[in-house]
Write a structure and sequence with these properties.
two-stranded antiparallel ribbon; single chain
């Protein structure tokens, strides 16, 4: 006879991965299907622009102090390098989509709500730092390997966001949430 608890226990890892993939896929499709409507919500573009400004300022400071002292931060969040190459950090580079994706993922994924109250903001900070490091790395490519910029941007660093989101999710599942967890005699949740 089929027992839900036995099924969940036996296939917990598979269920967790399938749920992660489904939430990530459907969020991605939803975002691109309704991106113009989402961006028309008051405050969304302003928040994205503010985040883009913060990313460009932090990236400028790191790049200027480490490997291109002639770097200039121009209006419009444009980093102009000593070889005259440039990177413009606009609203689509702000990381706001990834913030929403993280929020949706962890709000929908099983786990204790009190842990979500600190884990989601921590994930935002990690994603913001990831975005800054992405721009810093793109700066290296702009300066030293400009012919490879589009490949690195599109095929390495853009997917890297999903690697970080996946690692955050693994951390969440291993420590706090997901299917196949039970409470031990000391009240601590453990994996079956």
């Amino acid at each position: 006879m089929f027992k839900y608890k036995d099924f969940v226990t036996k296939y917990a890892s598979l269920i967790n991965v399938a749920l992660f993939c489904a939430i990530t896929y459907f969020f991605h499709e939803f975002w691109w299907a309704f991106s113009s409507e989402i961006k028309s919500i008051p405050g969304v573009i302003e928040t994205a622009d503010w985040l883009a400004l913060q990313v460009s300022k932090a990236s400028f400071m790191i790049i200027h102090n480490t490997y291109d002292t002639k770097l200039i931060l121009e209006p419009g969040n444009t980093l102009r390098f000593s070889n005259n190459g440039y990177i413009t950090v606009n609203e689509s580079c702000s990381g706001l989509k990834q913030f929403y994706q993280i929020a949706v993922l962890f709000l929908l994924f099983p786990g204790p709500w009190m842990k979500k109250l600190w884990f989601i903001p921590l994930s935002f900070m990690i994603m913001h730092l990831t975005n800054i490091l992405r721009i810093v790395f793109l700066g290296m490519v702009t300066l030293w390997l400009p012919d490879h910029w589009h490949f690195v941007h599109d095929w390495i660093l853009r997917p890297f966001f999903y690697v970080v989101i996946f690692l955050l999710w693994v951390w969440w599942v291993e420590r706090y949430g997901g299917f196949g967890r039970r409470k031990g005699s000391d009240g601590v949740k453990r994996r079956e």
